Amino acid sequence: MACTKQTYTALATWTSSQVADLFRDAFIDAGLMTAWHASFVNGGVESRVIEITYDGSKAYGKTYYWFMFSTGGAHLQVATGWNTSTNQPTGTQYLDYFSTTNNSTANHWTLLTLGTASTTILTRYTSGIDPEQSWFVLQSSTTRRIFTITHPSSPLQSWLNLDRGFYAGFLHVEPSTSNGLGRIRFLRGPALRRDLLLGPALNGNSTPDTFNINAAGQMYLGYAAVGHVTNTVNNYALTQPHIYLPVGFSASNPAYPADSSPVFHSMPATPYTTATLPSDFGLTFHYATNSISTGDTFVVSAGVEEWEVLAFAANGTAVNGASPLFLARMI
Description:
Structural class: mainly beta
Radius of gyration: 20 Å
Number of helices: 2
Strand order of the largest sheet: 1-9-10-11-12-13-14-15
Oligomer: single chain
Number of strands: 20
Distance between the termini: 8 Å
Helix content: under 10%
Number of domains: 2
């Protein structure tokens, strides 16, 4: 099976509401919602809220994803409740929401910095195998963010107790390199103290830095591969644990008659849902070139198995260093 691809475009010079409409259309088409739960503007900042019910029988079974759109960017916060009359999140500050300010993006995590002089594009890739899984590529000029939101029908792990806390299902992907090593990290978004995953680490904190930036850098899962280069083990040291994927080179292991760096798929992007990445999303580590661009085609077998590059990091060490790619299968 292959992914379905659809592109949503706001031409320069766009307005904030036009960018908000890109997200609305893409989220509806992905089955995340039928309409915004809340939609309003204050001080020139467009706010849009998705209500996703992960388990309506639980005290914290709903998560509210509060997006803000301005001429400077797209931004995100999360909450456990929302009042559509006051246009504000509900509950206890820092436990259930970070801030009620709805006319400034200062208290939101920046999804991507944008500028009206550049066309803004949001592309949706939905799995043909599991249509409840979609990844989105938000791009402006040469900058991009690749992210997903856990679908309301996605099965969460039974040990997540939504009577005690909520689940923030925003996830983004970050490929990177270090010397000859390549890695792909699946990272979380902003957190709150009621969050089952990072909440206990946030007690006593009240600054946007702690809730938004540091929390958004926390890794759910990471995958890595080493390059076909002469290196010491120090070049493979990682500050966070990663799963090393099995690549093979005939020069180092004669059991491989030819160099091997396959497309890996069907692995989890997060351990908190029982659904793995479907087999039409994959990871690979390119060694023949470090000249890669978003939208490039990665060909396994022409006309039979072809993938599109959603995210990449070009290894600058040498062409035999591992350049990680996050892929969507198109053929």
